[in-house]
Write a structure and sequence with these properties.
The protein is mainly beta and about 290 residues long. The protein is built from 2 helices and 23 strands.
């Protein structure tokens, strides 16, 4: 867990608090159910820890100052995933993660919380997004709903780029992907087949054709993270391996502490939104011990 954020939460009484971290405006919630932290830049959940448990999400200890994208938590890749399909000069992973968003707390009790997030200003796209974050029963649910108010169809790709905290990425097992086809981005997009559970032993960047639950079995942490999803036909799995060394907000010292398991709509399953249509992409993260 990010050391600066840990210090802010340790000194915080139960309730809701606005703070600043490296130039980012954050909303912190601490209740009997646990802790939640969101950034107004990117509508990004940075931290979730159920009461009495270890953090579920990883956040870099070397977060770059605003307005750089924040490494960790659950970045929103929207309204395109990876490079723009027609213009490589446009921002990688879209517009949402560096835009400012307004946060509305719909409910916050001893049982859970519900928040809604809208862009503070219209983003450079015809699509209209709405983000919902909910904590209930020790689980975190994040969703982004996209509406097409125009009179023409628009193609959408996106991801909830979840950085999951693990004890050691080299020791975890990912279950639920076996039998799936995947594109290996580190082998020029080669089409491959997942025969058994996935082990992360080197740099991994894969797009699985997959619409079900993934289990991250972490014996070092004595827990299993269940990653459910809705509105998604792609599951992206990423860890940079040794390629993390030159990444300023990861590096080899932090590379083993996370794995990304992302609910997504990629080139494998892009969404065509017709005029007036909506689409909801969601992820549900819970702990099984």
């Amino acid at each position: 867990m990010n050391k600066e954020l840990r210090a802010l939460l340790q000194d915080m009484p139960h309730g809701i608090q606005d703070v600043s971290l490296n130039g980012f405006s954050l909303l912190l919630i601490r209740q009997s159910w646990g802790e939640l932290a969101l950034s107004r830049q990117g509508a990004q959940v940075l931290h979730f820890r159920p009461s009495g448990k270890q953090p579920v999400l990883w956040l870099s200890d070397c977060v770059q100052p605003a307005p750089a994208p924040i490494r960790g938590g659950i970045p929103l890749c929207w309204p395109w995933f990876a490079a723009h399909p027609d213009d490589a000069s446009r921002p990688f992973h879209g517009l949402a993660r560096t835009a400012l968003w307004d946060i509305e707390v719909n409910a916050c009790t001893s049982e859970g919380a519900s928040l809604s997030l809208q862009p503070a200003a219209a983003l450079d796209t015809a699509l209209v997004p709405h983000v919902t974050v909910e904590v209930s029963g020790g689980a975190l649910q994040v969703s982004i709903e996209t509406r097409n108010p125009t009179d023409r169809p628009i193609l959408l790709s996106q991801a909830l780029h979840s950085y999951l905290a693990v004890s050691d990425v080299n020791q975890i097992v990912l279950d639920g992907l076996q039998g799936c086809e995947y594109r290996d981005k580190l082998q020029q997009g080669a089409l491959c087949h997942q025969a058994g559970p996935l082990l992360i032993r080197q740099a991994t960047d894969r797009i699985y054709r997959h619409d079900a639950v993934t289990e991250v079995q972490d014996t070092g942490a004595r827990r299993c993270l269940n990653i459910g999803k809705t509105g998604s036909g792609s599951t992206v799995v990423w860890n940079p391996g040794d390629a993390a060394e030159p990444i300023v907000d990861v590096g080899l010292a932090q590379q083993t502490a996370f794995v990304c398991v992302e609910a997504a709509n990629t080139f494998v399953d892009p969404v065509q939104l017709l005029p007036g249509q909506q689409h909801r992409l969601g992820t549900l993260i819970s702990i099984q011990e």
